[in-house]
UniProtKB/TrEMBL annotation:
Keyword terms of this UniProt record: Oxidoreductase
SUPFAM superfamilies, A to Z: Glyceraldehyde-3-phosphate dehydrogenase-like, C-terminal domain, NAD(P)-binding Rossmann-fold domains
Keyword Oxidoreductase: yes
Positions of transmembrane segments: none
Protein name: Gfo/Idh/MocA family oxidoreductase
Statement: the UniProt record of this protein carries the keyword Nucleotide-binding: no
InterPro entries: Gfo/Idh/MocA-like_OxRdtase_N, Gfo/Idh/MocA_oxidrdct_glycsds, NAD(P)-bd_dom_sf
Domain Gfo/Idh/MocA-like oxidoreductase N-terminal: start-end pairs: 1-114
Length: 351
């Protein structure tokens, strides 16, 4: 399997893991000449270019799109129309119209579209999935997720204050898929409506937002992302699932403990009448019979899933309609912010 990597900041990390998994990195691309040179030094046999369109006729089986957050859909469509499989980073589209064009391209293509949303496959999310699937929580009523960074005001402003950088271009609601996608996977629902609320002073772009999302199964979801002080020094993600019989949530803790999950099942919901509460620690994720770094597990899972899709025809781990639905929560959220946090319907792309 031969792949190309577009965007060599996050993309170089994915290229290194792809290589370790036995996937051939045949081409690398970035507009930044220094990043491109560094990647070419790491992969000297790969074709190096500053123009992604050079990949279209490079004989690739697939591409990994890790370029600017708000510039994935057009590239995805171009590669899909050439029969090249796509693994796209964590925004599928920036509008409903763009999302529908992406879905149409994926469904007419001989190739496939996969969404590279690694937080769906991180250790704490896997443990939460096991808890939900077991039925021990009862019917799910409320889900929550955070993707928050604790940075100084100066560092935050440097990241989101430059309109020439994609972080400065995107609406504050846009980077929501690290929270929304795991919640959609855990519930199996689709988003119906979102209300977005800014966090912090009302002068200018908010550093963080809260999204209140109504799901198709009646579950309420609360998602928070952005930059807030006081977060534990871990992997930035916290997820909670509350059901009629109990609660499962990842730990707010530093380091390795943040991958664990606390589960509480109420005594009145159990045959023995005894409340049960425990902390569950994820098992290792093995590559070549060796456990890998926890933070890499989600990325490795999506790369292994992408290879299985390309080489064996297995369905994408996260297909195009889920990717577009999750991304459109951020689009509707931006509309909600613009109308004073009023509710906005999320376009139905379920087919």
């Amino acid at each position: 399997m031969r792949i190309g990597i577009v965007g060599l900041s996050r993309g170089l990390y994915m290229a290194e893991w792809a290589h370790r998994l036995g996937i051939e990195v045949s081409a690398v691309c970035d507009r930044d000449s220094e990043r491109l040179a560094a990647a070419h030094a790491r992969f000297p046999t790969a074709r190096a270019t500053g123009h992604w369109a050079d990949f279209l006729d490079a004989g690739l089986d697939g591409v990994v799109l890790a370029n600017d957050f708000d510039a994935h859909a057009a590239l995805s469509i171009a590669f899909l129309d050439r029969g090249i499989h796509v693994l796209s980073e964590t925004a599928a589209c920036v509008s409903e119209e763009e999302g529908r064009r992406l879905i149409a391209a994926a469904e007419r293509s001989t190739a496939t579209y996969s969404f590279a949303e690694n937080y769906v496959f991180h250790p704490h999310t896997r443990l939460l999935r096991e808890s939900v699937d077991s039925g021990e929580l009862g019917g799910i009523t409320l889900v929550e997720a955070d993707y928050l960074h604790s940075l100084s005001p100066a560092d935050t402003a440097a990241l989101i204050g430059d309109p020439a950088h994609w972080r400065g271009r995107i609406p504050p609601t846009a980077y929501c898929t690290h929270t929304v996608s795991p919640l959609l996977e855990l519930t199996g629902a689709r988003p119906l409506e979102v209300s977005a609320f800014p966090v912090g002073p009302g002068d200018g772009r908010p550093a963080a937002v809260v999204l209140a999302i109504r799901f198709s199964d009646g579950v309420l979801a609360l998602a928070r992302h952005g930059f807030l002080a006081g977060e534990a020094g871990s992997h930035w993600s916290w997820i909670s699932v509350r059901g009629g019989h109990g609660l499962a949530e990842s730990l707010r803790a530093p380091g390795e403990d943040a991958w664990s999950v606390r589960v509480r099942e109420e005594g009145w919901a159990r045959a023995d009448g005894q409340t049960r509460e425990e902390v569950r620690v994820p098992g290792p994720y093995l590559v070549n019979d060796e456990p890998i770094d926890r933070m890499a597990e989600g990325t490795v899972a999506i790369l292994e899933g992408f290879r299985a899709t390309v080489e064996h025809g297995t369905p994408p781990l996260i297909p195009v309609r889920h990717a577009v639905a999750a991304s459109l929560v951020g689009v509707a959220g931006a509309q909600s912010l613009a109308k004073g946090s009023g509710p906005v319907l999320v376009a139905d792309v379920s087919g």
